């Protein structure tokens, strides 16, 4: 029977996530409180672009912080927001260092969401509430009214965007062609399965029904307005 090294066990007790990324911002390694903070296991993050997880309104300032860091300035107490695997937004505080000779950045992240909430006046910044359904392209997510964003796969986003772009019924052919597939050779049952899975995903995440109705023999439509962002 083998045992993990003591230092490996200790890393699992850290309150912080320790992230190593390359020059392009791609995760090379993640240890510590990775899953508690991001919702992803370390192996799910390795190979992903770090900026993909940054909440879109915070990307510009995050890129600015990265530029300063790689320009030789140590980074302490930088704050930004990330979208977890479950779609919730978390507020993080970072300290980071750029190792020029190794072409890597080492960053330590701590979840300060609870602190922000207790301090008051920042709840909207942590989890901005939408008063209507919204579909965002960056990151690709569906935002139900007064609920946290729900991350979408590329295929789910394309289907919902095709429906949101038209207030009328969208035919199965239109949706399948939007997916870049040939209508005649595409198994239409796959589309019905995808819609059912999306309905279940949205209801489980937000407690709200996905406002899509099936028009028999034709296709689907949103029965509530959905704003494209």
CATH architecture of the largest domain: 2-Layer Sandwich
Low-confidence stretches: 1-8, 121-129
Beta strand count: 12
Report the CATH topology name of the largest domain.
Beta-Lactamase
Q: What would the principal axes of the Cα set say about the shape? A: elongated
Mean pLDDT: 85
Q: Main sheet?
A: 5 strands, antiparallel
Q: Could you state the order of secondary-structure elements as H and E?
A: HEEHHHEEEHHEEEHEHHEEE
Kindly summarize this structure in a few lines.
This is PAS domain S-box protein. The protein is of the alpha+beta class.
Explain what the structure shows.
This is PAS domain S-box protein. With 229 residues, the protein is an alpha+beta fold. The protein has helices at 6-11, 34-38, 42-45, 59-70, 113-119, 123-126, 154-164, 172-178, 188-206; strands at 16-22, 27-32, 75-83, 89-99, 104-111, 133-137, 140-143, 150-151, 170-171, 212-215, 219-222, 226-228. It folds into two domains: 11-125, Beta-Lactamase, CATH 3.30.450.20; 129-228, Arc Repressor Mutant, subunit A. It is built from nine helices and twelve strands. β10 (212-215) and β11 form a beta hairpin. The protein starts with 5 loop residues before the first helix and ends with a strand. The model is unreliable at 1-8 and 121-129 (pLDDT under 50).
């Amino acid at each position: 029977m083998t045992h993990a090294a003591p230092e490996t066990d200790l890393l699992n007790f850290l309150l912080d996530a320790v992230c190593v990324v390359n020059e392009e911002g791609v995760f090379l390694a993640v240890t510590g409180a990775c899953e508690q903070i991001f919702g992803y296991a370390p192996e799910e993050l390795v190979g992903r672009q770090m900026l993909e997880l940054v909440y879109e309104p915070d990307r510009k300032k995050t890129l600015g912080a990265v530029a300063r860091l790689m320009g030789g300035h140590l980074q302490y107490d930088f704050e930004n927001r990330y979208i977890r695997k479950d779609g919730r937004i978390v507020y993080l505080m970072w300290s980071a260092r750029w190792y020029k000779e190794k072409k890597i950045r080492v960053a330590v992240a701590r979840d300060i969401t609870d602190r922000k909430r207790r301090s008051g006046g920042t709840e909207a910044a942590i989890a901005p509430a939408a008063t209507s359904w919204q579909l965002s392209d960056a990151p690709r997510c569906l935002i139900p009214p007064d609920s946290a964003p729900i991350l979408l796969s590329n295929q789910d986003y394309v289907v919902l965007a095709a429906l949101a772009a038209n207030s009328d019924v969208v035919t199965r052919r239109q949706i399948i062609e939007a997916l870049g597939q040939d209508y005649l050779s595409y198994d239409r049952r796959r589309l019905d399965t995808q819609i059912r899975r999306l309905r279940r995903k949205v209801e489980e995440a937000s407690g709200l029904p996905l406002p899509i109705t099936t028009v028999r023999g034709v296709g689907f439509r949103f029965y509530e307005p959905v704003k494209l962002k």
